[in-house]
């Protein structure tokens, strides 16, 4: 379980929940365009984020292993997994960033409460502003259904995240799932 947040490339001058949802809904398993414009946009976002936080680390994919695991060709694996993934160093606040040609996805595990949750959302807000300044993207929070311009508006609160993070052990146990030691999710491949 994780809290997801997005930046998306708008086609209009005002944030739109419908427009954001349309981009995000097409994300799962989709082969994303990877033309020169998309690669340039991805590199612009990556450069801006690493310029802000040089400790972010791009994840290196083994496309041969992905292809073998998914029973597809290596070319298909490269087409389906053509996004750039940035991760913080181990021990930092866990915010996974996936950069696509038309949007950026953020994944935050439900590990934080109180002051640590405040820090995570402060960091997320900084990333949103960096991306917005570099690309003009807007932000979208699917948990609250709100799209907004990060240059004009900040994340107001993270009550929904806090509620789930605080109740996660009981939510998991009610579902019959045993809790395990935390392992960074990007190390599962």
Folded structure, characterized:
This protein is an alpha+beta fold and about 190 residues long. The chain has one domain. Helix content is about 40%, strand content about 15%. It contains 6 helices and 7 strands, in the order E-H-H-E-H-H-E-E-E-H-E-E-H. The protein has a 7-stranded antiparallel beta sheet, with helices on both faces. Strand 3 (about 85) and strand 4 (about 95-100) form a beta hairpin. Helix 2 (about 35-50) crosses helix 5 and helix 3 (about 65-70) crosses helix 4 (about 75-80). The longest helix is centred in the middle third of the chain and has 22 residues, at about 115-135. The radius of gyration is 17 Å and the shape is globular. Mean pLDDT is about 85; it is low at about 185-189.
List the helices and strands and how they pair.
Layout: E1 2-8, H1 17-25, H2 36-52, E2 57-58, H3 63-70, H4 74-80, E3 84-87, E4 96-99, E5 103-109, H5 114-135, E6 138-141, E7 146-148, H6 159-174
Antiparallel strand pairs: 1-5, 1-6, 2-3, 3-4, 4-5, 6-7
* Quantity of strands, as a count: 7
Note the main sheet: 7 strands, antiparallel
Structural category is alpha+beta
Domain count: the total is 1
Helix and strand pattern = EHHEHHEEEHEEH
Q: State the low-pLDDT regions, or none.
A: 185-189
Mean pLDDT: 84
Q: What is the gyration radius calculated from CA atoms?
A: 17 Å
Work out the helicity level: 40-55%
Major sheet: order of its strands? 2-3-4-5-1-6-7
Span of the ends, CA to CA:
18 Å
Query: What percentage of the residues does DSSP assign to strands (E)?
Result: 15-25%
Outline type = globular
Number of helices: 6
